[in-house]
Amino acid sequence: MPHIAVDAMSGDSGPSTVIPAIKDLLQNYPDVTFHLVGDSHILKSELQRMHLQDSEQVKIHHASQVIGMDEAPSQALRGKRDSSMHIAIALVRDGHADAVVSAGNTGALMAMGKVFLRTIPGIDRPAIAAFLPTTTGRFLALDLGANVDCHPEHLLQFAVMGSILAERVMGVAKPRVGLLNIGSEEIKGNEQVKEASLLLRAARLNFIGNVEGSDIYRGVADVVVCDGFVGNVALKTSEGLASMISHELRASYTQGIYGKLAYLVNRPILQRLRKRLDSRQYNGATLLGLNGIVIKSHGNADRYAFARAVEVGIAEAKHRLTLHIAEVIQENLNPVVRNSA
């Protein structure tokens, strides 16, 4: 019976988005207990508005402070000890919850995760990991911004953790792991990537080699590994391109009578495409490598998107992801899981 701590005050709209999302989840997850953290007066009022109440499945934990989206992580750590984010993470640290979900300040969430949960023994740095769509399904990408500068060993650790997540949560047997590079040839890339490629080939992973940015959305790999600088640029570029395509399609189908007629004819196809590419259903990035499950939702997530982020936390909690990563690392003693041969 998973327990999920929810930072109900953070994000652009706070409780007005979080509580409706939780209401939607209650119907599908009767075995999950949701711990809502925030101003108890506001939360109770919002629960009443949604015809819910504090119960065995929905519990309220009071927090008097909220961390702003623009606050420095160091300031949040020192000055906001009664914040909803702090208390939500503390519930995981103290064993009262199996995962925490927040739409708040990413830097503060990562900093608090490192300080209060620490990293899994054998893992040097946490990575931001998220699912993205492909023509055949979806893939896991990491790191998407937590670590701008990485050593080759860090990329190997990301690959190991990502492979475990894909296998346990996605149900993929022997996940295909690719290393994001400027070319598929082994001679391509900077020294960091070349050294990481050697480590990945020697590891107990289904490593398929280098993959290019143009390949990752074709479903050539189940896990795509890169440093946080490259990953964040690739993610933001992809989001921008998707937004531009959506804008151009909308403009084309609303200009003139022929555009409107074409829209009526193609409406079912466009609706399927829109649903397939809807970024909201992929909301919820895992701060992978912490000694506890921490899920970051987009700050501007709506009711549907926030619920999807919570579902990521539920799935990882049910599959005991942190425990499995820790076991694999411990069995191999080194943080780089290599063949003994």
TrEMBL record:
A GO MF term: phosphate:acyl-[acyl carrier protein] acyltransferase activity
What EC designation does it have?
2.3.1.274
What pathway is it annotated to? Lipid metabolism; phospholipid metabolism
Organism phylogeny: Bacteria, Pseudomonadati, Pseudomonadota, Acidithiobacillia, Acidithiobacillales
Oligomeric state and partners?
Homodimer. Probably interacts with PlsY.
Top-level taxonomic group: Bacteria
Q: Does the keyword Lipid metabolism apply?
A: yes
Similarity comment text for this entry: Belongs to the PlsX family.
Q: Which InterPro entries does this entry report, sorted A to Z?
A: FA_synthesis (IPR003664), Phospholipid_synth_PlsX-like (IPR012281)
* Catalytic reactions of this protein: a fatty acyl-[ACP] + phosphate = an acyl phosphate + holo-[ACP]
Give the main EC class: transferase
Give the protein's function. Catalyzes the reversible formation of acyl-phosphate (acyl-PO(4)) from acyl-[acyl-carrier-protein] (acyl-ACP). This enzyme utilizes acyl-ACP as fatty acyl donor, but not acyl-CoA.
Under PANTHER family, the record lists: FATTY ACID/PHOSPHOLIPID SYNTHESIS PROTEIN PLSX, PHOSPHATE ACYLTRANSFERASE
- The name of this protein is Phosphate acyltransferase
Question: One Pfam family for this entry, by name?
Answer: FA_synthesis
One BP term from GO: fatty acid biosynthetic process
Where does the record locate the signal sequence feature? none
Q: Where in the cell is it found?
A: Cytoplasm
GO terms for cellular component: cytoplasm
* Keywords, comma-separated and alphabetical: Acyltransferase, Cytoplasm, Lipid biosynthesis, Lipid metabolism, Phospholipid biosynthesis, Phospholipid metabolism, Transferase
